[in-house]
Amino acid sequence: MTESMSLHTPEESATAPVAEPPLVVYSTLSAKEALKELVPAFERDRRQAVVITYAGGSVLVKQLTSGSEGDLFIGPAEFTADLVNKGVLSAERQQTLVLSSTALAIRAAGVARTTRTVDEVKELLLQAKSFCYSPGASGIHFTGLLDRMGIGPQMASKAVPARPGELVGAVVARGDAELGVQQISELLPVPGVRLLPLPPELRQEVRYVASVFSGVRRAQAAGAFVDYLRSAVAARIWRDKGLEPL
Question: DSSP letters of 56-112?
Fold first, then answer.
């Protein structure tokens, strides 16, 4: 996940003013595209304003452990566990939302390659002159896989960093990296790239969790929002955005 931040405000969804204070939510970027559709629908149906801050997981951990307050956090289990250990989030009030998996990305105009086996992926990686991965959960996991495949040092020498706030797919689309790896939900919104599925042995599955803050102010509204995110209506949108609801 890339290290950037943006804000969704109630005004964006043209929701009529409500008397209740807004539900304050923090979310990592993999869920952003789905939440951009889910939040306005929830606001219309429940007449409850929602304000969401989106950022990379490591950025949010720093922000929330530095005193930022909220009602609900949506992010990978590993970041959630860290915030629980620091007392920011409640260990008892968590719900699993979706699974996210990773894929490789090449330019849409590039030559199609098969990545059905570990050997095919290894060959493709070694042939690439440049490679981009995120500093978030998917990148951390994949660099570990590169080490286990015995090509960590070779790939490190080819690494091309994304610009601040940039998705890996954008680096690949403009040609600065031949290959990239990131969660599918973060690759799908980027035009100009083609996704290459990874074999099961290399496919990372990231579990996304909705967790209530220890000092939650809007507990009832937070619960209603989580219920909506776990509903059958929301499931279709999660899947459309590359995430598998649980």
Answer: -HHHHHHHHHTT---SEEEEEHHHHHHHHHTTSEEEEEEEEEEEEEEEEEEETTSPP
Q: Which residue has the tokens 């209603």?
A: 224
Whether 218 and 9 have beta carbons less than 8 Å apart is answered as no
Considering only CA atoms, give the Rg of the chain.
Answer: 19
Distance CA 187, CA 170 (A): 9
CA distances to 30, 143, 175 from 101, rounded to whole Å, are 10, 15, 24
Q: Strand 23-27 vs strand 131-133: parallel, antiparallel, or unpaired? A: unpaired
Give pTM, 2 decimals: 0.82
Q: Which domains can be identified in the chain, with CATH numbers? A: 5-99+207-245 (3.40.190.10), 100-197 (3.40.190.10)
Residue 79's contacts (CB-CB under 8 Å, 6 or more residues apart) are: 28, 57, 58, 60, 61, 137
CB atoms within 10 A of CB 200: 9
- Tally of helices (H runs) and strands (E runs) in the chain: 10, 10
Report pLDDT digits (tens) over 39-93: 999 999 999 999 999 988 888 999 999 989 999 999 998 889 889 999 999 988 8
Please state, in angstroms and as integers, the Cα–Cα distance from residue 19 to each residue in 7, 16, 49, 102, following that order: 21, 10, 9, 41
CA distances from 63 to 58, 59, 60, 132, 153 (A): 9, 6, 5, 26, 32
| Vertex 103 angle, CA 100 and 106, to 5° | 145
